[in-house]
Amino acid sequence: MRHASHKLGYMLLVSLAALVSAQGVGYAQQAEQKASSYAPIDLKETFATTRARMKAAKATVMKRQMDLLNQRYDLSDRPAQGVTMSGGKPIQEGVRVKLPTGMTWDKLAAMGPKEIRDKDLFPAGFFPLPHPNHPEGGMTFPKFQIDEIKKQEGRDLTRFDLDFDLPDRFLPAFPAPIYLTTRPDLGDVSQGKLVTIDNYYELFNGVLNPKQIEGLRLLVTAFPQQQFNQTEDRRSERPSRGVACFDCHANGHTNAATHLVGDIRPQEFRHRIDTPPLRGVNIQRLFGSQRALKSVEDFTEFEQRAAYFDGDPVIATKKGVNILERGSQVHAMAEFQELLDFPPAPKLGIDGKIDPRKGSKSEMRGQALFFGKANCATCHPAPYYTDNLMHNLKAERFYKPRMINGRMASADGPIKTFPLRGIKDSPTYLHDGRLLTLEDTVEFFNLLLETKLTDQEKKDLVAFMRQL
Asked: Sign of torsion, CA 152 191 199 299?
């Protein structure tokens, strides 16, 4: 009996050890499966294998994104009559966000947030916009930017795994005009050219001082970035010199190039970025759509130290981070950026409002609405139409969280107030570019702010904003 008892005890100990061991393996597997904030350093797949795999998946990836865009928006070419951007490019007009079947904007605006949420009636085009391939992310450029940089510099910004998604007609003019606060008498100083490392000196020598020219040189110099570098963990066919600040902020404005914010994890919660203009940074006090960086110097340094590499300093070291020197390089870059002016607005007085002698009846009605019933000026006061603060629109009041093409549509959180001066020059709108036209933007805020605007009031509001 004693021998049997010892044997039974031994078997129980073995079973218990096996159970503990199995649980340990289970815990280890759970730990392995948990998403990490860190990108892998020791890659297990060759570059050739990665490239082949991603190129093979590209058609499916882009079809999924274009299907989403066509489901959300009317992407047809409908330019506004007699209205262009300051460089002459036609502006797309009309509400492009599609409504649920049987719904109208007036019916929707008559409902409260809870009813819209419960009935799942929030328009698809008002949800956060995913990156062309949200699980992958990274800098992605419009084709016109890729083609011009390749022509001038021989540097290729093409990605083998995905393409830019929004049609060119909805994007800012390219190349955009450049206006300087120091030389308003010159008008557009770009001479119709995209400023690059090839031509910056000839265009600006004699217009800028030497320190400002040095700042511009750095802004058009390519440095390694997450997707464009010399390592095997890149998304360009050949090893790349990298990207320049002005590859996104083309001519100190924007070409609508997109990326994902570097300061949110996990991946599905990262926001798509619609590159904002650098015009008017001299009157701004917050930088980054959510980061609330307090100076353009902070933003300039942050971009190359962190945003270029998804906020990962280990990857940044591996791929060749460019550490800018704050007292000279960052200062010079910021000084040039602070010279970039808003486009001319001939109908505005020195107070930033339309001169009654110059404005049409519709524009003057729109101005009254902007500062009154529409409640726009609460966040966008004249003369530059920003309060330099952060605001949380809490759009999530209107919908239940859901996954959209790898992007978790939930709360956006606080977003900085972007200046509306020159707003017609910088579609698309909102921090992630989800609103294609000014008309879409008016409908979005009419719903979120519950201002109950009439159709004519919406048209007048758009007419006013086109003059800013």
From this structure: negative
